[in-house]
Amino acid sequence: MSKIDQTRLQLMDRYWKAANYLTVGQIYLQSNPLLKEPLRPEHIKPRLLGHWGTSPGLSFIYIHLNRLIQDHNVDMIYLAGPGHGGPALLANVYLEGTYSEIYPRVTQDEAGMYHLFRQFSTPGGVPSHVSVPTPGSIHEGGELGYVLSHAFGAAFDNPNLIVTAVVGDGEAETGPLEGAWKSIRFLNPERDGAVLPILHLNGYKISGPTVWGRSSNEEVQSFLSGIGYEVFFVEGDDPMMMHQAFAETLETCYEKIRAYQEDARKNGFHGRPRWPAIVLRTPKGWTGPHEVDNVQIEGTFRAHQVPVSEVKTNAEHLAILENWLRSYHPEENFDERGHLVPELAALAPRGNRRMGANPHANGGKLLTNLVLPDFTQYGIDVKEPGTERHESTRQLGKFMRDIFVRNTQHENFRLFCPDETNSNRLGNVFEVENRCLVEPILPNDDHVSPNGRVMEVLSEHLCEGWLEGYLLTGRHGLFATYESFAMVADSMMIQHGKWLQESLKLPWRRPISSLNILLTSTCWRNDHNGFSHQGPGLIDTILSRKGEVSRIYLPPDANCLLSVADHCFRSRNYVNLIVIDKQPQLQWLTMEEAVEHCTRGLSTWQWASNDEKVEPDIVLACAGDIVTMETIAAAWWLRQHLPELKVRVVNVVDLMTLNPPNLHPHGLDEATFVEHFTEDKPVIFAFHGYQRAIHQIVHGRPNAERFHVRGFNEQGTTTTPFDMVVLNGVSRYHLAMLAMEFAPRVQKLTPPLRQECEDMLNKHESYVQANLQDMPEIQNWVWSNKA
């Protein structure tokens, strides 16, 4: 191909200098933004924070993408994996005008530049990394490893979008990033957009060399080409030669992307393309000071953060900083008033083609509501509570099957699951959808197609990252996984929750569909799995998030699950955690009762209680499907053996209702809390997760010490369902004994009954070891009002 016009490249180099100037200014300056007077110590910030090392490379790429967008009218967003290059991205969205439109105080003149510099990494300002306040960003840069998974999630079902994902060589060392390269095996050129990975190698992390930076081109080539990419290398440090080489390479990559897409869309999908990937090698801290105090800076780890320190107190360092800033010729690139000169301003795209203003990076602008079927049509016909067993999640699978059907026009819904869709009883979706894979399909494959929208890959990081990218660009989905292994990606959920929390403060950030997480194969059912599959800790993770964004639901049966799922699919800007087992379980509530129960968040189940609307002796509370069954069975046992004991049964489906209302929007006021739990009666609380969570939530409630919580305490391995609750002290017999222990009015009657419970536990232990299954009276137990 022909070379890019040299005059244009020279202008692009000046634009790059302007971006680099603004980047250094944000790190160092609190005044004198245009250097209209000699630099003095009082112009320097008292605390120097920020990251220079990766920033010039990020700006270099941004400017070249601007050229590509202008020449080809490309719909493109930019994801910065080296997230601490925040000042570079801020500089570029400022230069293109987006930043000033969103934040009018930061005008494109000297006064606005002053505010741009002062706000960076200062109290009340903006973070040093690419974050929620950065226009054009959908990728939180604080935790490394997710830029590629977010990028591919954004590209799925976005046929005209190209997502440029810059991967830093430090980030490239993380497990999630290394696993995400294989995402091209799920990208269909016929119906998806494209991802252009740019592996930016500058050789160093904070203080040590990077693995990829020290790898030869041949090794990098072998790795990426082995995954399926066509690899293009651009390397050097001479700016004009690099501009020419990178522009030509970018043009070639764009032509290949469009050729693959046009062929697939004209002739149909007929094989996975060898998508292009660019490897860009530049010095760390490129164009910064080469030496300080006779120690090399540029091209070393010392350029990572603040290359020149002590500039307020060291005159020589201050002079180095001033020479560095002036090397970018601000007087040539900005006019007297601080405006970017017209010939450079003309290099930025216009309107929504600016990467900072692209609506895909503010996904709520593009969000179309899901067309949801009536969830009540998928419910279980519960004639009597606790008499029939069904797989609750199977009903959810039928509901989602029809969500796919009703949204085929919008193509805005996907299910993400680590190879567990059938295992989790969601397999009805395969009546209308397939697993996605753009590899050869074999005759024995089960529902596999390059056009599928069920995304199965054995990486929780990848599933979660894909879904986050999909949501952040204005679509809907669900991440379903085994409970214990959701913890693999818990920090990703934390980061997404932080993103949502901060976005609520920004009116220009439009609400997006909630991150919906379904946990099944829970800690209480390990019929053929071991101790490794027992871990309800994600509840604790979500519980620690701010109430504005966090929701935890523990539906006890299918009808409650459907009601909760419908609510979650309609919600915006939340992290919704739904926990329910996939195994056959007793069904408790009619659909009408379930809807009312889920709307309230918790209810007193009068049919299971015998307090007859008087003050009970004891409250049996429960949250979680298995512990609900044990609680109801305990109430039943007490009714049969100790009818004098007045028992109230309270079931909690929305865990957040237990919070005081000042801590969570769903929190119950004190009067309603007392209405269910009384003011002072003992509460035996059977909980799905770790006991400490309930103690944390009810802290501050009336007489909180009366809550006696039992839950999972890291006991058990491959064993029977009932043995799991026995080992963890939350079986019906344990709960019944606790109720008798803490109800003083009937304690004289309880010694023989407590012994009977102990005898049943001993009988259970002998029986399961001899027969390898639970006792018939446990397996076949159902609720009955009869004695």
How would you describe what is shown here?
The protein has 787 residues and is α/β, with parallel strands linked by helices. It folds into three domains: 6-349, Rossmann fold, CATH 3.40.50.970; 375-585, Rossmann fold (3-Layer(aba) Sandwich); 601-779, Rossmann fold (3-Layer(aba) Sandwich). The strands form six sheets. The protein has a six-stranded parallel sheet, with helices on both faces. Strands 1-2-3-5-4 form a five-stranded parallel sheet, with helices on both faces. Strands 18-20-19-21-22 form a five-stranded mixed sheet, with helices on both faces. α1 (6-28) packs across α2 (55-72), α1 crosses α10 (239-267) and α20 packs across α24 (732-741). It is elongated, with a radius of gyration of 30 Å. The chain starts with 5 loop residues before the first helix and ends in an 8-residue tail after the last helix. The mean pLDDT is 95.
Any chance you could write out the topology, listing elements then pairs?
Elements: H1 6-28, H2 55-72, E1 75-80, H3 86-95, H4 98-102, H5 110-119, H6 147-155, E2 161-168, H7 175-180, E3 194-201, H8 211-214, H9 217-227, E4 230-235, H10 239-267, E5 276-281, E6 291-292, E7 295-296, H11 315-326, H12 330-333, H13 342-345, E8 389-391, H14 392-406, E9 413-417, E10 435-436, E11 448-449, E12 454-456, H15 460-472, E13 476-482, H16 490-503, E14 515-520, H17 538-543, E15 550-553, H18 558-570, E16 575-579, E17 584-586, H19 591-600, E18 602-604, E19 618-623, H20 625-641, E20 647-652, H21 670-677, E21 683-687, H22 691-698, E22 707-710, H23 721-727, H24 732-741, H25 751-771, H26 776-779
Parallel strand pairs: 1-2, 2-3, 3-5, 4-5, 9-12, 9-13, 10-11, 13-14, 14-16, 15-16, 19-20, 19-21, 21-22
Antiparallel strand pairs: 6-7, 8-17, 18-20
